[in-house]
signal-recognition-particle GTPase
Amino acid sequence: MVLAQLGGSISRAIQQMSNATIIDEKVLNECLNEITRALLQSDVQFKLVRDMQTNIKKIVNLDDLAAGHNKRKIIQQAIFNELCKMLDPGKPAFTPKKGKTSVVMFVGLQGSGKTTTCTKYAYYHQKKGWKPALVCADTYMESDPVKIAVEGVERFKKENCDLIIVDTSGRHKQEAALFEEMRQVSEATKPDLVIFVMDSSIGQAAFDQAQAFKQSVAVGAVIVTKMDGHAKGGGALSAVAATKSPVIFIGTGEHMDEFEVFDVKPFVSRLLGMGDWSGFMDKIHEVVPMDQQPELLQKLSEGNFTLRIMYEQFQNILKMGPIGQVFSMLPGFSAELMPKGREKESQAKIKRYMTMMDSMTNEELDSSNPKLMNESRMMRIARGSGRHIREVMEMMEEYKRLAKIWSKMKGLKIPKKGEMSALSRNMNAQHMSKVLPPQMLKQIGGMGGLQNLMKQMGSTKDMMGMFGGGGDK
Ligand SMILES: Nc1nc2c(ncn2[C@@H]2O[C@H](COP(=O)(O)OP(=O)(O)OP(=O)(O)O)[C@@H](O)[C@H]2O)c(=O)[nH]1
């Protein structure tokens, strides 16, 4: 099961449960069994899934649910926390420092994408002004890989490279020989960090494979590749558990820049279709041309999400490319609606929407009042664009949903370029209280509770991630 589907299945299971009139143990168990099935189908290791189920049962208090608290949010929160826990081994990976020499060794099986990932990793740092170097000790049946690795590292140290990446072999006739060679390269080059590269589509084998590598060398971080297309994501969770090391990047395609820093909370937020405001705001700065940014953010902060804004953003997004990435960050546009690997369909849908909007009047495009769009106008637009009225209605529904979510941005201070997470910093409890759904605010203990919580957490960014960025869906 691909990640987007996993998120969808979990959300559906929670939704079904919260539709039940009475939440008793049976209903909760059914919901958890559904989630368990979804996780297993996504190749999360059985033991991890079982532990998660036990933990959620411990956390979720049935009395709270019976008392009419927001059941969906309580369960969703518990699942959110458990998934985060699975992906967060509790200690960060070694982080190389620019200007100071670090040796980073890559290990992983043949075909896992190791060599590609070494290059992406080097390129990622080079773009940020580092001086990386790549030592290819990935010499199958030729020369002495240990000697090559040592000589390479020495040479690049002399050349003042600050990030020396050692690529090791991933193939051997004998598994034992592969691990022995890896151990020797590690001993000889003394890496500051060993990164285990894993193909996300290896399924249930992830845990054992990761563990085997960890037992031979001191794996300190994981990079999961091929998260695009048909990738199964569950293996990532298993690899973290097996190596007790965090995932630091994910590979999302064959190209050099299809490489993303991995952040647990936004990832899980997106996975559960909860959206990720901070990531989305970062994306706005990437996607929306500089000269349009202040105006757009101003309009959004005034709560005016018009059809024209939607149109312009569609335009920008089509120009920019990886549409799925942007939309999955936008609360409301869950990964299920804009699934990765189905970008073409999503793109076609957006183009359809834009054609329909081309048949609208300026007044309609610039109004944030969807009531203007009555049935006769919708018929005209459908005729004008050669589409069915059903499609116009569908687009309007999409618009209303987005506008509702965006309306929560009203009154927020506008972050400046380069301080995206400052969206959160800029917000005080007052703002947060506007953004959060009222039931959730009550659950936290009103304004007082919110202020306390914000103090404890230190930053509202975490809260945004935790609560799905304030989108009340
Ligand atoms: N779709 C996709 N393909 C990837 C990604 N990363 C690597 N690949 C592809 O996976 C294949 C194997 O990648 P390599 O980098 O050669 O793998 P390796 O682990 O170094 O394998 P050996 O060099 O043979 O040991 C290549 O076709 C890459 O283009 C990714 O994130 N997404």
